[in-house]
Design a protein that fits this description.
By secondary structure, the protein is an all-alpha fold. The chain is about 60% helix and about 0% strand. The chain has three domains: about 45 residues, no CATH class; about 60 residues, no CATH class; about 55 residues.
């Protein structure tokens, strides 16, 4: 419930004069805005009477509303800051970096291997199966990566207006290699498009 102007003035006055903001009768305890009796009453209420599950559900609903409102206004849903112009991700750069760092720590804590460690051992980047010789994925995920590369290239060809024939020829050559299962692969071509090796 929002405070009215007079309630705010009363609260600030009592706080400034070190009087309990709840009862307004006793002196506030050291390093507190409540007197000792009001602190005990509040502690008892939160430990024995207050329904935490209802409050948790109410907080969840309010957070969801806030998040949806921020997304609708083009703000970062986590911190509410504006995102840079032309930025396509939902989270702002600082929140993305923070979440990525948190995710890496969580994965390490749970015993997950990093990408470089998986490559060194010879495990698939998506699961714990052995990777195909010379690749970073197992058979199943390699097929998915090839299919995704094919679809992405087809979309790229359909949506972009090519400036010259050289680019068009390069794209069709890449699409053909995707379809042939990367038999005649060129490492420089792969790395420029992010296709897994």
């Amino acid at each position: 419930m929002a405070r009215t102007e007079s309630q705010k003035e009363r609260y600030l006055f009592l706080k400034a004069h070190k009087i309990c903001v709840s009862c307004g009768q006793e002196n506030a305890a050291p390093h507190s805005i409540l007197c000792i009796d009001c602190r005990e009453q509040r502690r008892y209420y939160y430990n024995h009477v207050y329904d935490k599950s209802k409050r948790r559900e109410k907080d969840r609903v309010n957070k969801r509303k806030q998040r949806d409102e921020r997304i609708k206004n083009g703000l970062c849903p986590s911190c509410g800051n504006e995102k840079p112009d032309g930025y396509t991700y939902q989270l702002c750069p600082s929140c993305r970096a923070r979440y990525r760092e948190y995710d890496q720590k969580r994965r390490r804590k749970n015993g997950a291997l990093g990408q470089q460690e998986r490559d060194y051992i010879g495990l698939c980047r998506q699961c714990n199966k052995p990777a195909v010789e010379g690749r970073c994925y197992c058979e199943e995920h390699l097929e998915k990566a090839r299919k995704s590369a094919r679809i992405a290239t087809e979309h790229r060809l359909a949506s972009l207006a090519w400036k010259n024939k050289k680019e068009e020829l390069f794209a069709w050559t890449f699409l053909r290699r995707c379809s042939d299962g990367f038999e005649t692969q060129d490492t420089t071509t792969q790395s420029s498009h992010g296709v897994p090796q």
